[in-house]
Amino acid sequence: MSLFTSPTKPSSAINVSDKTMNNAAKLLSLSDISYHIGQQRILSHIDINIAVNETVSLIGPNGAGKSTLVKLVLGLIEPTNGQITPHQKLQLGYVPQRFTVPPILPLRVCDLLAQADKNRLTAEQRQFIFENLSLTHLLSRQMLHLSGGETQRVLLARALLDKPNLLILDEPMQGLDPDTEVWLYQFIDELPEFLRCAMLVVSHDLHWVMKGSRRVICLNKHICCEGQPSELAISSEFQKLFGHHYEQPYVHQPHACEHHAPSEI
Ligand SMILES: Nc1ncnc2c1ncn2[C@@H]1O[C@H](COP(=O)(O)OP(=O)(O)OP(=O)(O)O)[C@@H](O)[C@H]1O
């Protein structure tokens, strides 16, 4: 029997908006979250609900607070205000933006992958991940010696082996060549049924973000706008931030959010 059943349904199949999502469908809620460092406001009044099996893309200019939001969700930092509530049995998986191994630390790929919980997947399902992420020949290699693309595949496998129900990917394609990027996006878009999970994907790739029907949240220290790509593309807030890049090869640049000066938030 093939492990690869039907591809993951797009989030539109769930079609749960923040306002109508009932508690049974909620996996994680962020309610009125603010985060300050001293006098500096990093995030203000963030409300986000993530539903079971929903994919949410998080976009925003450099310094918008995307990685800070991920750290809050991961529990690495505490919000200054507001409440983060995990619903159901939250099992987080995380693929970081960067992963550096100190040169003096011997860490083979198999050592890192062995840290995953062996009871979450069957041997056949684990094998599926190794084969489809082309890891088998890398298992005895040192993490330190892997290329960027190889490292990202190992980190994705490490997260998936724990069978998370919420997978957080923080700019997982950074530094990858275009072919590897397309290949990895396709892999996460078509996860097999046994790995199906909600995803929060921080991405600067507007062409991936705005394709399909995943919910998109546009952050610039606060939530500027959110919705389906078709709704977002015509919103004035999105146009102000990204309109001049969208439909063209996207080159990311810092940009102030004009409809709310940070001091007004
Ligand atoms: N520990 C810290 N001390 C001081 N400032 C911080 C700290 N962590 C984050 N910041 C500031 O908070 C803001 C948001 O940073 P964050 O890394 O969350 O942005 P980002 O949206 O992920 O940016 P990028 O797209 O460049 O990765 C930035 O101005 C950053 O300098």
TrEMBL record:
Name the enzyme group at the top EC level: hydrolase
Protein known as = Zinc transport system ATP-binding protein
Q: Which UniProt keywords apply?
A: ATP-binding, Cell membrane, Hydrolase, Ion transport, Membrane, Nucleotide-binding, Translocase, Transport, Zinc, Zinc transport
One of the entry's Gene Ontology molecular-function terms is:
ATP hydrolysis activity
Picking any one GO biological process from the record gives: zinc ion transport
> From what organism does this protein derive?
Psychrobacter luti
What are the EC numbers?
Answer: 3.6.3.-
Q: Superkingdom of the source?
A: Bacteria
Q: Which InterPro entries match?
A: AAA+_ATPase, ABC_transporter-like_ATP-bd, Metal_Ion_Import_ABC, P-loop_NTPase
Q: Which residues form the ABC transporter domain?
A: 28-245
